[in-house]
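BUG: 3D viewer hangs when loading the predicted structure for this chain

Environment: internal workstation, default settings.
Expected: structure renders.
Actual: progress bar stalls at 90%.

Input used:
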Amino acid sequence: MSEAPRAERVWDPFVRVFHWSLVTCVVLNQWVLEEGDPPHEWAGYTAAGLVGLRVLWGFIGTRHARFADFWPTPQRVRQHLAALGRGEHLHTPGHNPLGALMMLALMGLVLLLGFTGWLQGTDRFWGNEAVQELHEGLAEALLWLAGLHAVAALVMGRLERTRLVKAMVTGVKERY
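Structure tokens produced before the viewer hung:
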């Protein structure tokens, strides 16, 4: 088991602003804005645009923001799961492999939501019930995965004795 430093700067300002801006877009679209109204569409397109910028940042950004730093290869996922099975918590400065899988899944869902939302405004798919149901199903999946993501951050933070939620505000992972 590798030992983590007591405090380590991990998340740059772009990653943190991206994260909380995306959370805001999802919360607004799910619980505040009216489905199909222009503000709902703008929030959805903003969310998709944010994901597009984050993908770009995954190639040109700071060390721990780059996909190369945390890409969840099958080997990394197996090693992480094996360590968890042994009760070990390997130090990963950025995303651990399961966190990386979750991040990629959430971003993929946001992009699919943006696409299906856009489709609903096209002549070909206007009023198409199947596209609308797909959009709603993707939104529900996003909420479930976002909830799982939040719970996992709390649980893993406790197990690893690391302030993960605080790190997404300050950029610094602190062990306690």
